[in-house]
Specification:
single chain; 100 residues; alpha+beta; SH3 type barrels; five-stranded antiparallel sheet; 2 helices; 25% strand; elongated
Length: 100
């Protein structure tokens, strides 16, 4: 059995190929709180974690490149401004070249 300990902030891949992050560990209750990439939060007890490991249903994974999957972010929260670069029907080729 490959022993992979749950670590808060680390990403793992589950049995159905879904990515999840360990977000909390409660040693007193012996539970692990995980959050899937889509934002769904689930709790797993220590026994279930090691049972999944024994069945090769959990493996270490890298963090997803698109970190915004589980985060509800507004454009103004990203720290940069976005411009509407849509071309209007009445703009001339010269005006469009000035925008680039």
């Amino acid at each position: 059995m490959n022993v992979i300990r749950p670590i808060v902030g680390e990403w793992y891949r589950g049995g159905t190929n879904e990515l999840f992050e360990v977000v909390a560990i409660d040693h007193q209750d012996e539970t692990i709180e995980i959050q899937y990439f889509d934002g769904t939060i689930e709790e797993m007890d220590f026994d279930s974690w090691y049972e999944h490991l024994r069945d090769d249903l959990i493996e270490a994974a890298g963090a997803p490149e698109d970190w915004s999957g589980a985060v509800d972010v507004e454009s103004e929260d990203l720290g940069r401004e976005f411009e509407d670069n849509a071309r209007t029907a009445w703009s001339t080729p010269h005006e469009r070249s000035l925008r680039r």
